[in-house]
Amino acid sequence: MLDLLTQSPHFYDYVTVAVLLLGLFNVFEILFLLYNKNMVERIEREKLALKRLASTALITSTAPAELLPGPAAEYEFAAYSEAIASVLDSFEGEIADRARALIGQLGIDDHYRRLARHRTWYKRGNAIDIMASFRLKASREFFLAVYRSEPVHDVKYRIIYGLSRLTREHADIRALAQMLSALPYLTPKYTEDIFYNIISALKAEGKEGEFGLFMKETLNDQSVQNLVKRDCINACFAATCEKGRGLLKEYYAAYPHEPEILIASIKALARIGDFSKMPEAMKNPDWRVRLAALKYAHLCCADLLPEIRAMLRDNSYHVRINAALALAKAGGAGRAALQAEAASEDKFASAAAAYALTQEPA
Amino acid sequence: MAKILIIDDDETIHLICKAYLSKSGHTIATAFDGPEGLALAESFKPDLLLLDINMPRMSGFEVAKKMKENPATKEIPIFMMTSLKQESNIQRGYDLGIAEYITKPTNIAHLKLRIEKFLENKK
Predict the structure, then answer these.
(1) At B33, which CATH number?
(2) Which residues of B touch A59 (CB under 8 A)?
(3) Which of A31, A338, B1, B38 is deepest in the core (most CB within 10 A)?
(4) What are the DSSP E strand ranges found in chain B?
(5) Is B5 domain-assigned?
(6) Residue A144 and residue A72: Cα distance in Å, rounded?
(7) Domain A276-362 belongs to what topology?
(8) Mean pLDDT for the stretch of residues B49-57
(9) Among A134, A127, A124, A36, CA closest to A83
(10) Where are the domains of chain A?
(11) H/E element, A283
(12) pLDDT band at A192; cut points 50, 70, 90
């Protein structure tokens, strides 16, 4: 084929035509890109203008729907949704009530309910995300129905996120924990966020006790993954669940061979000022648990200084260095112990002590 | 009447706060991110700063830190207004010397009262 072309008397004509076609293609490509850029920018400008209009209507009118053109294009729905979600995230009271009413009046909820059944998974996911940002109690049953028929995990994770913001009682939390356990584990951050949302939703309703009830039920529930239980405790740490003190200790006692749960319990207990598990945790065979306890040791345990000092000879480098740092933060007695250890014959202990002495006391 | 600077990346917050606070005669200036807000704080010299935490380019904590380090802006009281409710964030805010930590969602009428009460006590 190549020989046929190169030996043809029209070879240079073919080359010229090919070059011209390529040039033409490039020109069209550039024109298309410019047109597309222009269109995207125009849509962004219109979207911004609509968002401003929606915000202004919400501020100035008691019937904002009458001032706003009904949305038709996707970006119009997106613009109104963003403005409404922003108001609902930031404000409560009259303006939030108006924003909430607008969702139904402009047909936004119906639009996203339809999209949540779209054949393309990312459109379904996007619709769920937007509906979740509205936190409408009426969406709960819809989310549950969509979850049952949804085949894609990515969308299911989003539905669970949306449901976590609409939690009412411990039965809802239990259902969410089981949904989470039935799916492949995503990330600690995701699961922790789910439980954090749950705690926040319950706290807002004055029902924080419902979360304690759930934790109690889940303590020995094998159908809930241990990783999910750990993230649940971590969410307690983030949200400072003061009412969970007793339960956190029960988790600590029930999972002696699950370092992740032990660590999460120590952190959550320390956050609420309970250091009763420290002595036990500092002797745990898992170095990560000993390390977690040491991180808080300087806050509580003047009487544990001998034990912390002994940990300068721990077989884990991380534990040794953190024991030294804990002593450095523990005031005069701790620093005196470090000075004695800096002259020790144990070169690991002396190196850790010498390093910690260079650090500022707490 | 006071001069209030709002630093938030969400224009809806600007519009709503501006509408409610300017009704009482306050002068409002707005910025979308930390660097813009810091520059504006020096030139506008606000009596109070309403500051978000999650923003592009610079977090609200960094903005507060820089404000308190700068002799020209360190006396400006800061109201942090954020959806971050964790104790650690609240503590961090107060450690940086903010005057108030307001968690979203908040009632705009109550926010206005809190700001006005604060400015009145400051006089």
Answers:
(1) 3.40.50.2300
(2) 15-16, 19-20
(3) A338
(4) 3-7, 27-31, 48-51, 78-82, 100-103, 106-107
(5) yes
(6) 27
(7) Leucine-rich Repeat Variant (1.25.10)
(8) 92
(9) A134
(10) 167-274, 276-362
(11) none
(12) confident
Give me the residues paired with residue B7 across strands: B31, B51
Cβ(A290)–Cβ(A326) below 8 Å? no
pLDDT tens column, A200-257:
888 888 887 888 888 888 888 888 888 888 888 888 777 766 667 788 888 999 998 8
Q: Which residues of B touch A93 (CB under 8 A)?
A: 107-110
- Cβ pair B29, B6 in contact under 8 A: yes
Q: Which residues of A touch B82 (CB under 8 A)?
A: none
User: Given an 8 Å threshold on Cβ–Cβ distance, is A90 in contact with B109?
Assistant: no
Q: Is residue B86 included in any domain, yes or no? A: no
Interface confidence, given as ipTM, is 0.88
CA distance B85 to A196: 10
**Of the partner residues B10, B87, B109, the one whose CB lies closest to the CB of residue A240:** B87
List the structure tokens of A32.
């298309």
Decide if B108 is inside a domain.
yes
Confidence of residue A340 (pLDDT cuts 50, 70, 90): confident
How many C-beta atoms surround the C-beta of residue A199 within 10 A?
25
User: Does B85 reside within a domain?
Assistant: no
Considering only the beta carbons, identify the residue of B12, B106, B107 that sits closest to A55. B12
pLDDT digits (tens, 9 = 90+) for A341-353: 888 888 888 888 8
CB atoms within 10 A of CB A17: 11
Whether A95 and chain B come into contact, CB under 8 Å, resolves to yes
Q: Which of B85, B87, B108 sits opposite A91 (nearest CB)?
A: B108
Please tell me the distance from the alpha carbon of residue A78 to that of residue A105, in angstroms, as a whole number. 15
DSSP string spanning A222-249?
A: TTS-HHHHHHHHHHHHHHT-GGGHHHHH
Interface test with chain A among B12, B52, B55, by most A beta carbons within 10 Å: B12
Q: Say how many domains are in chain B.
A: 1
> Can you give A138-165 as a three-state secondary structure string?
CHHHHHHHHHHHCCCHHHHHHHHHHHHC
Instruction: Provide the residue range defining the domain that includes B109.
Output: 1-44+67-78+95-123
Is the overall model pTM greater than 0.80, yes or no? no
Nearest-by-CA chain B residue for A236: B86
Q: Which residues in B lie closer than 8 A to residue A87 (C-beta atoms)?
A: 12, 16
Look up residue A329 and give its two tokens. 């933060």
